[in-house]
Amino acid sequence: MKHINQFSVILVSVFFVWIFFCAPSSALSTPPADEFPDTAENFADVSDFFAHQKNYVPGEPLNRTVKTVYLSFNIWLRSDGTGVFTDEEYINNKLHELVERLNRIFYSTPLPSSPIEGVDYLRDSHIQFELKAIDYYRNSDLYTATCSSGPRLNRYVFRKHPQKRQYLNIHLTSGNCRGATGYANYPSGRNLESDSYLVSFLRQDADQYAYGYWAFMLHIAHELGHNFELRHPYDSEFCRFSHPDFLFDLFGFEKQDWCNNPRSNCDVCFQQGKWDCPIDDPQTTCTNNIMGGNSDSGSITPLQMGRMNRTLAIRSLRKYAWGYSEEPFEVETSQQWTFNKKFYQDIRVASGVTLYLKGTLEMVPEARIILEPGSKLIVDGGLITNAMYSKSLWQGVIIEPVASRGLAFWRKKKSPGELIILNNGSIINSMQ
Question: Which residues pair with 74 in a beta bridge?
């Protein structure tokens, strides 16, 4: 009997130790009652935050990721095989060198020739390029393309090589565009399947072995800037201080000293833009900005970097871009998302926070959404899916387990993270 009593005491002691230290907290607590219904009106719409270029400057919360944009070069010849570029091995090597130099410009951009006081300039744009394909096409009609030929050139290429729709296509032709050396279309914010293109017009009398490939690279960088939604600082950039995309780090925080007569509806004067404009001459206003059309160009301001990276998140150009950062985007206040955005990093919803999704999220293959204990993800008619052209599933929604620590009567009651699907909301193409 004595041994039985000792065994009972031990058994009871073990039971209480298990209760205090090991029992799952969910067994000892219930989720707190909701203070208000989970409806969209109760959550702040943060669309403006996700739409502003300054929040995509490298290092900001929406841009911790170096993104690689896939490129394809298409060289156009006459139907008989003649044209500007015909030596395929030589030209292919030169185009690979061009992309390497392009990456150096975007990874280690030169400092501005006319810096704005108070601006901390960055060197790494968080954008790189990868050359995926080079092909030659014989078509005398398309060999002499014009400003409006980009869609036709793309369609011809896609019929021959459907997979090239996954790349940003650069077309080298011997056409003309009202004297311009190239033409590139802006990305779409409404049709996210819209195809981008860049058309470069080569001189018909050009010597492929003596061609100026450094100047050609600067020209391609400039035209790519248009694909990324940048404009000319000499005639078409936003020129009102009040415009959300105004470039303070390029034009300044007040009207320039030399600006006497701004254009109508402008707060600043545009800079000069000419290939041979001397940027060191105090009598000129041209700069080495990548969009300035100058032979010394290459500089990219932080806000320009922000706009380009925003384009890779919320515009059609994003379908050509890939990358991933292990540093998550932290959702630390309850909010609703009504927009369509591509994420190149994890999303972590903090404990006690609700993320209310009515829009669409595209996730790169490595990315996941993490729900901390006590958080909520409500997908109300929204969609979470893998990125367009992704060959892999994304990682899915991860609900972190509730930690069991401390004595039971000291524990703060906390429920696990919760995933709620409403009104035909959907989570698809994930590993979970």
Answer: 135, 171
